[in-house]
Amino acid sequence: MVGGRRRRRGRPRRVPTGGSRPRGRPWHPRPLRPARIRPPPGRVAAPVIRAVVFDLFGTLLHEFPRSEWDAWLDVSAAAMEADPERFRAAWEATAIERQTGRLGDIEENLRTVAARSGAWPTTSQLAEALEARAALYRKWFVPRPGAEEVLAELRRRSVPTALVSMCAPDTPPLWRASSLAPMIEVEVFSSEVGLRKPDAAIYLLACERLGVEPRACLYVGDGSYRELTGAAGVGMRAVLIRDPAEADMPALRPHAEDWSGERMEHLSEVLHALDV
């Protein structure tokens, strides 16, 4: 007896497992709701990659060695009887105009640069400079190892691809005559669209033409023109490509950035990135 009340023995008190039991009604446990699955703290699920956007020079094609590029500038200046230092300075000062198509075709580009350096080349002198440039492009405008195989495999997997390039006006026709062109669905050349890296607009244009959101795009480039920062800024997954075998050859990489994000050494790693 406890507190004047007698306690029955042999019958343990029932503790309901869910909800209160109304008097006179049968009791039913409440159904359990499945818990919402959340990623572990500090980890966010990566978006599924649905398209790949490539840079051109130094990524799908070889980049020009710095020494050979500088030699072409000197040959062009000599051919057009321009002071080499003034010609080089005028070439660099007209970068935005040339790369966004404001100076017309490549012949007009050279004529304008020569004029701004104080030279007025004849038709034959201009042709000599253009031929020196064409020879440089014939030598280096070739696919990097693995480019054809990777693009063919992406096409087989039905993965949309795009090309975003900072270039002079002679690059688009050279690209369209190359073996890689049929394997790329979308082309965005700065000299044709009037946009430059790392401005967001040039990446968003590629996404619009692909019909894919930026966060579902993998961007691969060699880091020139701060392109990786620009790609990441619009939500793309940006990856630097840099072959260690080319480390001893200084390449033409204007406004290259010190990238601390993802990197790869060979184009074949693009396929592995899609499987992550």
- The CATH homologous superfamily of the largest domain is named HAD superfamily/HAD-like
* Broad CATH class of the largest domain: Alpha Beta
CATH topology of the largest domain: Rossmann fold
Which structural category do the helix and sheet elements fall into?
Answer: alpha/beta
User: How much of the polypeptide forms β-strand, as a percent range?
Assistant: 5-15%
Classify the helix fraction into a percent range. Answer: 25-40%
Question: What's the topology here?
Answer:
Layout (H helix, E strand, L loop, with lengths): L50 E4 L11 H14 L4 H10 L1 H5 L6 H11 L6 H18 L6 H10 L4 E5 L5 H6 L9 E4 H4 L6 H11 L6 E5 L5 H7 L3 E5 L21 E2 L4 H6 L2
Parallel strand pairs: 1-2, 1-4, 2-3, 4-5, 5-6
Helix pairs in contact: 1-5, 2-4, 4-5
Describe the structure in brief.
The protein is α/β, with parallel strands linked by helices. Helix content is 37%, strand content 9%. It has helices at residues 66-79, 84-93, 95-99, 106-116, 123-140, 147-156, 171-176, 190-193, 200-210, 227-233, 269-274, and strands at 51-54, 161-165, 186-189, 217-221, 237-241, 263-264.
Task: Write a structural description.
The protein is an alpha/beta fold. The chain contains eleven helices and six strands. The protein has helices at 66-79, 84-93, 95-99, 106-116, 123-140, 147-156, 171-176, 190-193, 200-210, 227-233, 269-274, and strands at residues 51-54, 161-165, 186-189, 217-221, 237-241, 263-264. Strands 3-2-1-4-5-6 form a six-stranded parallel β-sheet, with helices on both faces. Helix 1 (66-79) runs antiparallel to helix 5. Residues 15-21 and 31-40 have low confidence and may be disordered.
